[in-house]
Every structure is written in C-alpha cells, then in structure tokens.
Specification:
Layout: E1 2-3, E2 8-9, E3 11-13, E4 17-19, E5 28-31, E6 44-51, H1 62-76, E7 83-86, E8 92-96, E9 101-108, H2 112-115, H3 126-129, E10 145-152, E11 157-164, H4 170-184, H5 227-230, E12 237-243, H6 245-253, H7 265-281, E13 289-294, E14 296-297, E15 316-317, E16 320-324, H8 325-330, H9 333-344, H10 349-361, E17 372-377, E18 395-398, E19 405-412, E20 418-426, H11 428-442
Parallel strand pairs: 9-10, 13-17, 17-19
Antiparallel strand pairs: 1-2, 3-9, 4-9, 5-8, 6-11, 6-18, 7-8, 10-11, 12-20, 13-16, 14-15, 19-20
Helix pairs in contact: 1-4, 7-9, 7-11
Length: 451
C-alpha cells in the first residue's frame, strides 16, 4: 500500500517474468567500451513515464502492447537480453545469452489525476511504480533492464524502466524506447538500426596515455572535512526545483550585462544550482575546492569522434569546473557561468580519448565525489515525447537523484508553464537554505529585499 498525507492507494503486482527476444538471436560475448565500463557508470538509472487515457486506444492493454513491442525490439537490441560479466582488469562484457529482461505487470486502484504533482521528481511513490525486484539490482549477472507497467483505473498507466547505465546513455535509452514505440505502431524494423561496435569507438589507445587534465577524477586526500561525510546517502532528503521561463529570465538578467550572448539555459541553471548548493552545504574552509561536472554528449559535434547514428553506448564525458568555495559563494552568477562555459569548452576528441586511456591506466576509477556536483541535461533527447499510442506522457524523465548527481527534465506545471524540473539530494539541514538561495536568485534583483 502506498500513502502520503492525503493519498492512499494500492498497487498489485504480478510475479516478475522474463521477456525474451521474439526470434532467435546470436549467442556471443560483446565487450563494452572503455567509456562504458568505468566505475562511475556501474549503477541503475530509473526512468518514469505517466500516460493519460486515450479514447482512441480503448480496448488495448498497455501491458500487452508494450510487452509485445519489447520482445520484437530485443531481436535487434539483443545484448539487452543478456547479462554483464567481468574480465581481466575489471573489463565488462555482455554475455548475449538471450535470458531476457525483467517485466512486471501491475494495477493501481487510483486515477492518474489523483496523483497530481506526485508524478514529479522525486516521486514519493517510485517504489510502487518501479518495484525493486529482489536480486535484480546488481550490475554483474543481473537483468540489464527492469520494466514495470502499472494500469490506472482511469485507463491511463505508468511505465517504469530501470536501466544498467553501463549499457547505454540517455540517447541510447531513447533510441531503444523509440524502437519499441515503432514496433507498437506496426513497424517491421527500427527506423534507426542499432549499432554496437564498442570495440571500434571510445576505446583506449594502444598504448594508452593521459594527455589532458581531468579534474572530474582528481582524488584529493586531506584532513579537512569531506563532503562525503555530509552527503551520507542514508540521511539525505530528495527534493526538486522547478525553473519556469520567468526564473530563467531572472537568471539571464544577472549576466546580460556581461559578454554572454551565447549563454544557454543549461549554463544558467547549472550555475544557479552549483552556487546555491555550495552555499547550503557550507564548506567550513572558504579555500576548499568545489567543482561541478558537466555531462557533455559527443554525438554529432564537430571535432568529436565520428560516432555513427544508431550507436547506443555511452558517448559522453563530464569535464569539471573548479573554484574555491568562498569565491564561488560570494561572486556574481556570471562567475559560475564563465567557469561552466570554460569547462564545456574542454570537450574535444583528444579529451575523450584521454578519458578512455585514463580508465585503462587507472583501472576504471570512479569520478571524485568530494565537493563535486554532476549534472546531466535530458531536456533535449525527447524523453518527454515517448508515444506508445497514448500520446505524449504527462511526465517523462528521470526521477533519480544521487548524492552528487542530478538530471534536468522537461515539465509543464499546473499553471501551464513549460520549464525544467531538477531532482536533487541534500542533507536535511541544507534543504531549506538551498531552496531559499534558489528563490532569492530567481527573483528579480529589485525584489530581493522582500524575502
């Protein structure tokens, strides 16, 4: 049973089943790339979609429709039906054994309209709509996808997906989901044929050599208090911030007098969150080095590796902007924007190759977590426009936030404003301060005195 202060409902789940490819698929071992199998990607990413009833789909069961589309898609994306194994030097590979992906059918005695803003990150009913099947959450030897379809009594439904991040990034996941929607609508093959070729793209050179500075992987040991102590995952609160067009304009007004004519919405939101989060966490030493790591996709960018359309592996890096905490907290927003833009400018073919080489040389280390904040923009990959025949979801995106990771998602609020919602994890004592700082920063400058 799920409940909040005003909402009580029950979700009944059937026993999990394994959905296998509709037709026989190759039995082989496929290596992941040296970008794919780094320690920082060895986790599960949850995605949630909520769909309203569509009169044109009456009589069609979303569970059966999606299950059938999934089985057809796995014929082309058959590595997803396999299991991860680990070789020498912690190298990850996929045993394409066709065992299948986990699929859960469920029913909830509630209408989607009753959920209201509870569909938004951090979605208090996440466990109900994407149940963690016992024994399925590992990286090695476990199903690579967990999918739950939950019907609502109004005819709408929720689709929860949990993805092993070593297999695909946001673009790759969207390519896979779009293939399912195409099969659901009668296609005989995906419009974009999937491409594996991990051994050809984004692998380390021979011999490997680190040629760039990688602040995102810098492991610093000192006697100062660590943010890892503050960001204890068992004690964190998950909340979310919504940036409306007015909020974005208020941020833009604070840098408009500077030479930031190409300042993107992402830069403004990231600068705001980085600064406000640092103020709320309150490093005791103003000289503490804090950083924000910016996930940048390499697909289709000039001067980047020629990654073909259809490649669904991880094809991104996350260079870091670095600043002294005291300077970041007391400087204008334009200071943080400038650092973020400089970090993004590090993106190059050489930088990506250097990351892949670093993974091999240093045995696939994890990104630094000490005073780091990693952000990923999902607003441009179409995750909010996945259509299985029931039209676009009311909400589609990542409800997940880790202690140092946040994802940006599109959302239209109850006032009809289209903006960006960002889930974030913070210690209990920092939440109110963080929300206050964001509110102060997103108000017009002449209104600050009213707070």
């Amino acid at each position: 049973m799920a409940f909040s202060s005003t909402l009580v409902f029950t979700v009944k789940r059937r026993e999990p089943e394994l959905v296998v490819p509709k037709k026989p698929t190759p039995r082989e071992i496929k290596k992941l790339s040296d970008i794919d199998d780094q320690e920082g990607f060895r986790f599960q990413v949850p995605l949630m979609f909520f769909f309203r009833d569509n009169p044109s789909m009456r009589g069609k069961d979303p569970v059966g429709v999606i299950r059938e589309g999934l089985a057809k898609t796995l014929v082309y994306y058959y590595p997803f039906a396999g299991r991860i194994i680990e070789g020498g030097n912690r190298k990850l590979m996929v045993d394409c054994n066709g065992k299948g992906v986990l699929f859960v059918e469920a029913d909830a005695n509630i209408k989607i309209e009753q959920l209201r803003d509870n569909i938004l990150p951090p979605c208090p009913f996440m466990e109900e709509f994407l149940h963690d099947v016992p024994g399925s959450g590992g990286i090695i030897g476990c199903p690579l996808l967990l999918i739950q379809v939950t019907r609502f009594i109004c005819g709408g439904f929720a689709l929860g997906i949990r993805l092993n991040h070593t297999m695909a990034d946001g673009y790759g996941a969207m390519q896979f989901l779009n293939a399912i929607t195409e099969f659901v609508k009668g296609a005989s093959a995906p419009s974009i044929p999937p491409i594996w070729q991990r051994e050809q793209y984004l692998n380390a050179r021979s011999p490997p050599r680190i040629t760039c500075t990688h602040n995102e992987f810098e492991q610093i040991t000192h006697n100062k208090p660590s943010s890892d102590d503050i960001m204890d995952s068992d004690k964190l609160i998950r909340t979310a911030i919504f940036f409306s067009p007015k909020d974005i304009q208020a941020l833009r007004n604070q840098v408009s007098s500077e030479n930031f004519h190409r300042c993107q919405r992402f830069d403004l939101i990231t600068a705001c969150l980085w600064k406000c989060r640092t103020i709320a966490l309150h490093p005791t030493d103003p000289d503490e080095m804090v950083r924000v790591s910016i996930i940048i996709n390499a697909r289709g960018k000039q001067g980047m590796p020629d990654i073909p359309t259809g490649y669904y592996g991880n094809a991104f890096i996350y260079p870091a902007a670095v600043s002294k905490a005291g300077v970041l907290c007391t400087s204008p927003l334009s200071y943080a924007v400038h650092l973020i833009q400089n970090a993004k400018a590090q993106m190059s073919d050489e930088y990506i190759k250097s990351v892949a080489d670093l993974m091999v040389i240093k045995k696939r280390p994890k990104y630094t977590t000490n005073w780091n904040f990693i952000v990923s923009d999902l607003t441009r990959i179409g995750i909010d426009k996945v259509d299985f025949g029931w039209d676009n979801p009311v909400y589609g995106g990542c409800t997940f936030a880790a202690p140092v990771i946040s994802f940006y998602n599109n959302f239209k609020n109850s006032n009809g404003e289209e903006g960006v919602v960002v889930p974030i994890c913070l210690p209990p004592l920092a939440v109110e301060k963080f929300q206050y700082e964001v509110k102060k920063m997103t108000l017009n400058l002449n209104e600050h005195s009213k707070l």
